[in-house]
Amino acid sequence: PGIPRHTNRLINEKSPYLLQHAHNPVDWYPWGQEAFDKAKRENKVIFLSVGYSTCHWCHVMEEESFKSKEIGEIMNKHFVCIKVDREERPDVDKVYMTFVQATSGGGGWPMSVWLTPDLKPFAGGTYFPPEDRFHRVGFQTVLLRIAEQWEENKDALLESSHRILEALRQTSEVHVQGQESPPPSKEVMDTCFRQLSRSYDEDYGGFSQAPKFPTPVNLNFLFTYWALHQTTPEGARALQMALHTLKMMAHGGIHDHIGQGFHRYSTDQHWHVPHFEKMLYDQGQLAAVYSRAFQISGDEFFASVARDILLYVSRDLSDQAGGFYSAEDADSYPTTTSEEKREGAFCVWEAGEIRALLPDPVEGATEGTTLGDVFMYHYGVKENGNVDPMQDPHEELKGKNVLIAQCSLELTAARFGLEPGRLDALLQECRHRLCTARAQRPRPHLDSKMLAAWNGLMISGFAQAGAALAEQGYVHRAAQAAAFLRTHLFDPDSGRLLRSCYRGKDNSVEQSAVPIQGFLEDYVFVIQALFDLYEASLEQDWLEWALHLQHMQDKLFWDPKGFAYFSSEAGDPSLLLRLKGDQDGAEPTANSATVTNLLRAACYSGHTDWVEKAGQILAAFSERLQKIPIALPEMARATGIFHHTLKQVVICGDPQGEDTKEMLHCVHSVFSPNKVLMLADGDSAGFLYRQLPFLASLERKDGKATAYLCSNFTCSLPVTSAQELRGMLNP
User: Fold this and answer.
1) To pair with 665 at 20 to 30 A between CA atoms, which of 4, 164, 330, 712?
2) Which of 30-39, 293-302, 352-361, 721-730 is the least confident region?
3) What HEC string does 562-620 produce?
4) Does residue 338 belong to any structural domain of this protein?
5) Tell me, what CATH number does 36's domain have?
6) To the nearest whole percent, how much of the chain has pLDDT over 70?
7) Backbone phi, then psi, for 295, in 5-degree steps?
C-alpha cells in the first residue's frame, strides 16, 4: 500500500482496533473529554462505534462504510464520531450494549449507538449495510434521518434519552432484597443441572443447536455437580454430558487440527465450520477444563488436547516479555498476491493441495493407498469441499475443506488395514507437513494488546494444567506471566492493577499515555490466577499478592448497600451507569468467579468477613439463581462450594522431599472442587504462618510428609499415606 490518503487522531492510540481505523476518512476521536467537549460546544449528536480488532463484521462495516469518502463526509458534517475498543473499555461497551439489547432485542459487534452531547443514548443497532438492502435500512439513510431528527425534534430526542436512561437504571440494578440470605444450594444446583440437561445436544454435545459455543462455565458446573453427586444417576449424566461435549469439540473443526488451539465458535450443530478467530480467554479456560477432564477420567486424550492448546498459546500468543496477546483474526489474505481478505483462508484446504503434499504410498496398507488418502478419509476431506453452503453465505469457503475428525483411529486404521499406533504416527507426520505448508500463507492479524483479565485466565490454564498433568514447565510459564503482570500491569505505588499494555516497536512493552485502570474482571481473574499458581508452585509470594489485590478489589468495587461488586469504579462522570454483570457468557461474569475467590481468600487468611461477602453476593443474585441458574452456571457452582465449605488440605513436609512430592501429586491428580491446598514447611516466619497461626501446631508424623484435612481451622488426624489422602479428598 502507498501513503494513506487520510490520517485521523486514532493514529496516536495504542489499541490495534483503533489503529485499524486511523486512516479512515472519518474524523474519529477516542473516548474522552476532547470528543465530549466538541459535541457540547457544537451541539452535535455523538456517533459511538464499538468493536474489537478480530471482529469479522467490524471489518465488513469498515470496508463498506467507514472507508467511504461519501459516508465519511456525512459523519464528519453531522456528528462527533467516537471509536471504542470494547476489550480496552468493557465498562463503556456494557453501558451502551445494555441499551442496544433493551431497545432492539439483540446485540453484537460492531455496535453503533447515537448519543446526545451529554452521552445519553437514543438510537442504536449493530452492523448496518452502507445502503438500503432488502429489509435492512442502510447506514447512510440512518445517518441522514438522525441528523434531520436532531435538527427538527431535538427536545423530543433529549426527553426520550432521559426516559430511556432512567428505565435502564432501574432494570439493570442488582441488589439484595431486604434480609435475603444465600439461596439453597441444592435447589439452585439441581435446577441448573435440569436446565442444562434439557438444552443438551445428545448427539454432538454442547447446549444449543447452532451456533455452538464452547461455554467452559457450563462444563465446570457439570464437573462440580458430578463431584458432589458421584453415586447418583444425575451425577453420572452430568459427567457424561461434559466429557462427550469436550470430545466432540476436540474432533470438530472448531479445533485447529493443524495449528492447535480452538476457534471462537461453531456456526453449525456439528462443531464443524467455525468462526475462525482465536481468543485468548477461550484458550485459557479450555486448557483448564481439558485438564480437569483428564483428572476425572484418566483419559490421556483430554491431556493431549490441553497440551495442544498450551502449545498454540506458547508459540503464537506469547510476548517475549512473558505476557499473552489477546487474539488472532478470522480473516486473512488467501495468498501473498491477494487483494482481499477472506474468513478462514489461513486454515482451510483444497483436496488437491492435500494430495500434492501427501503423495507417499503407505506401506502395509491396501494397495495404492497414499498418505493423502488416509488423511482425507480421517479428516472428512472431499474433492469439492466439505462446507455446507448454508454455513457459507458469502461463498468464501466454496471448494474448501475444514478438517474434522470423522472417525476414531480404530475405524480409520481398520479401513486401510493399519495398526492404530502406526496410523497415529502417520497422521502426525501428515499434520506436520500441512503445518509447514500453511506457514507459507499470510498470517491473520494478531491483536498484540495484553489485558490483565485475559492474562489471568491464561495463567490459570497453565497453572492448572501444570498441576494436573505434572508438567513443571507449564507452572514455570504461568509464573513468568504472573511476573509480567506485576511488572507491566500493576502500579506498586497505588497498589492497583492496570487494564492493558501493548507490544511496541522492537518488541518492547508500551503503555498508553494515560493508562486505563483495572476493572473488576481484571482483579477477579488475576486473583483467581494467583491462587491457582500458588497451589501449583507453592510459592507464597503469589498468595500474598492475591490477598492484597482482594483487599483492593473490595475498596474499589464493593457495593455496601446492595451488596456484590460493581464492574467499574465510582467517579467516572462519562459512565452513565455502574453495572453488575448478571450473566456468565464466554467468560464467567466477575461476580460469579469472585465468590469462589473470596472463599479461597478466607481459607488462606482467616478473614471470615470474606465468607460473609461471598454469601452476600449469592443473596444479591438469589432470585436469578433460583429461577434461571443456567444464566449463571459459575455462580450456581459457587453455591455448592459455599454450602459444602472449602476444606484446607495442609501438607507438612520438605518441599524437595520425595514423600512431600508424592503427597502433592496425589492432591493434584484428584478433582476436588471444594478444597484449597497449602504447604506448611516449618518456616514459622513465612506469610502463611502469620495469616494462619494454627498451622504452627501441625507437624510431621514420624518424620514423614504428613497431610491434614482442616475445616474452619479444625483439623483431622494426620495422614502419611497418599492412598489414605486420596480417599479423604473425595467431596
Assistant:
1) 712
2) 721-730
3) CCCECCCCCCCCCCCCCCCCCCCCCCCCHHHHHHHHHHHHHHHHCCCHHHHHHHHHHHH
4) no
5) 3.40.30.10
6) 99
7) -55, -45
Comparing CA positions, the residue from 508, 480, 486, 482 lying closest to residue 498 is: 486
The C-alpha cell that represents 503 in the structure block: 507490544
Is position 214 within any domain? no
Residue with cell 459444602: 644
* Angstrom distance (rounded) from CA 222 to CA 44: 51
Is the same domain home to 463 and 595?
A: yes
Alpha-carbon distance of 170 to 670, in angstroms, equals 45
Same domain, 410 and 503: no
Q: What is the pLDDT of residues 507-535, one digit of tens each?
A: 899 999 899 999 999 999 999 999 999 99
C-alpha cell belonging to residue 479:
509464573
pLDDT class for 681, splitting at 50, 70, 90? confident
Domain boundary among 440, 457, 487: 440
* One domain, residues 627 and 701: no
The predicted pLDDT at position 713 comes to 79
CA distance 444 to 54: 9
- Domain ends where: 419, 440, 461? 440
Tell me the backbone φ, ψ of residue 342, rounded to 5 degrees.
-130, 145
194 shares its domain with 148: no
The residue type of 20 is Q
For residue 475, the SS3 value is: helix
Residue 282 lies in a domain: no
Cα(194)–Cα(628) distance, rounded to whole angstroms? Answer: 11
The three-state (H, E, C) secondary structure of 628-671, written as one string: CHHHCHHHHHHHHHHHHCCEEEEEECCCCCHHHHHHHHHHHHCC
Q: Do both 511 and 552 map to the same domain?
A: yes
Distance CA(105)–CA(547), nearest Å, equals: 40
Distance CA 643, CA 164 (A): 40
Listed residue (346, 342, 240) closest to 293, CA to CA? 240
Angle between helices 371-378 and 409-416 (to 10 degrees): 140
pLDDT tens by residue, 91-109: 999 999 999 999 888 899 9
Contact 498, 521 (CB under 8 A): no
The grid coordinates listed for 288 are 483448564
Task: Please indicate, yes or no, whether residues 23 and 61 belong to a single structural domain of this protein.
Answer: yes
Instruction: Answer for the pair 371, 357: CB distance below 8 angstroms, yes or no.
Output: no
Residues facing residue 401 across a β-bridge = 349
User: Virtual CA dihedral for 572, 577, 579, 585, nearest 10 degrees?
Assistant: -100
Q: What is the residue range of 146's domain? A: 10-172
Please give the torsion angle defined by the CA atoms of residues 717, 723, 729 and 731, in that order, rounded to the nearest 10 degrees. -120
CATH of the domain at 505: 1.50.10.20
Residue 465 has pLDDT above 60, yes or no: yes
Whether 481 and 592 map to the same domain: the answer is yes
Cα–Cα distances in angstroms (integers) from residue 416 to residues 373, 422, 476, 556, 596, in the given order: 9, 11, 43, 63, 50
In this structure, the answer to whether residues 496 and 352 fall within a common structural domain is no
Question: pTM score, two decimals?
Answer: 0.97
566 belongs to a structural domain = yes
Q: How many domains does the chain have?
A: 4
